């Protein structure tokens, strides 16, 4: 089923609405709302905010949730920023968990057929999720829609895994430093990044090299 008119106009809880606005404003300055800069901090702040949206915003099915995320984050101006990319990642998780939930019930992922045209870059994923969505499927979509609490739980679990992945990414990148940096090399970096700094520090424990930052 398509997203209801109520969802596009529905208000978020006041504290969540304020948090979303503050985050979007800070993200344009490449900061999280606390003022910390850096892609890792901003990524974690984005995932935590998106998790609150999934957990607390009013939505009744996957299509409504996708519509809400697109309207409140992407169309609010974050489409070309790091938060926008993470929002697309979460939307992908929503589609995957919805499709898995429907398969568990022996149904077809019909309600997502209505959002196939939302983003060209996600077309192949839409096609996979909505592959079984014909007229017969549309007529029985209500009966085959996944249980909402179970679907929400699955999405939140997937987002927890995403958060853990982000939290450990700097360390995992740094662990590969010796594979890429060799003794006596001269390395040029553009700007500063805590992830790059950690990467170089790990390599410096066993290799001697020069670094220039511009």
Concise summary:
The protein is mainly alpha-helical and 214 residues long.
Write the layout of secondary structure elements.
Blueprint lengths: L4 H5 L4 H14 L11 H18 L5 H17 L3 H23 L18 H7 L5 H5 L1 H4 L3 H27 L2 H4 L5 E4 L4 H11 L5 E4 L1
Helix pairs in contact: 2-3, 3-5, 3-9, 4-5, 5-9, 9-11
Query: What is the averaged pLDDT score?
Result: 76
β-strand amount? under 5%
Number of helices: 11
Backbone CA Rg: 21 Å
Number of domains: 2
In oligomeric terms, what are we looking at?
A: single chain
Distance between termini?
A: 52 Å
Q: Helix and strand succession?
A: HHHHHHHHHHEHE
Overall geometry comes to elongated
Descriptive account of the structure:
The protein has 214 residues and is mainly alpha-helical. The chain folds into two domains: 5-169, no CATH class; 177-213, no CATH class. Helix content is 63%, strand content 4%. The chain contains eleven helices and two strands, in the order ααααααααααβαβ. Strands 1-2 form a two-stranded parallel ribbon. Helix 3 (39-56) packs antiparallel against helix 9 (148-174) and helix 9 (148-174) packs across helix 11. The radius of gyration is 21 Å and the shape is elongated. The N and C termini lie far apart (52 Å). Residues 1-9 and 113-141 have low confidence and may be disordered.
Features:
two-stranded parallel ribbon; disordered N terminus; 4% strand; elongated; 63% helix
């Amino acid at each position: 089923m398509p997203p209801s008119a109520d969802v596009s106009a529905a208000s978020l809880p006041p504290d969540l609405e304020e948090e979303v606005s503050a985050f979007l404003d800070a993200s344009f300055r490449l900061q999280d709302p606390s003022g910390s800069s850096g892609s890792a901090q901003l990524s974690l702040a984005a995932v935590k905010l998106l998790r609150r949206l999934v957990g607390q915003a009013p939505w009744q099915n996957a299509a409504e949730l996708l519509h809400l995320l697109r309207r409140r984050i992407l169309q609010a101006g974050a489409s070309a920023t790091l938060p926008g990319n993470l929002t697309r990642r979460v939307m992908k998780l929503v589609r995957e968990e919805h499709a898995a939930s429907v398969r568990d019930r022996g149904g077809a992922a019909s309600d997502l057929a209505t959002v196939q045209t939302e983003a060209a870059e996600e077309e192949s994923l839409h096609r996979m999720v909505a592959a079984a969505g014909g007229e017969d499927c549309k007529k029985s979509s209500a009966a085959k829609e996944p249980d909402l609490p179970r679907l929400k739980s699955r999405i939140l679990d997937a987002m927890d895994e995403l958060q853990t992945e982000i939290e450990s990414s700097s360390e995992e990148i740094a662990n590969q430093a010796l594979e890429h940096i060799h003794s006596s090399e001269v390395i040029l970096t553009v700007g500063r990044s805590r992830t790059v700094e950690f990467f170089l520090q790990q390599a410096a424990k066993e290799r001697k090299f020069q670094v220039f930052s511009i």
